[in-house]
Amino acid sequence: MTSRTMLRAIAPPAFLLILTTTGAFAQSAPTAPKAPDAAASGRGRRGDPVPPQGPAPKTADGHVDLSGYWSPSHSPENVPGGNIGKDYPGYKLPFTPAGETAHKYNVEHTIDPEALCIVGGVPRHNASGLAFQIVQGQERAVFLYWYTTYRIVPFFSGVKHTEDPDPSFFGEEIGSWQDKNTLVIDSAAFKEERTWADENADPHSDQLHLVEKWTRPDLGHLHLEETIYDSKYYTEPVHYQRTWILGRPEQQLKEYSCAENNVDAAHLGPGPGAIGANGERGYEKLAPLPPPPSKDRPAVTSIPQ
Question: Which residues contact 254 (CB under 8 A, 6 or more apart)?
Answer without folding.
Answer: 8, 146
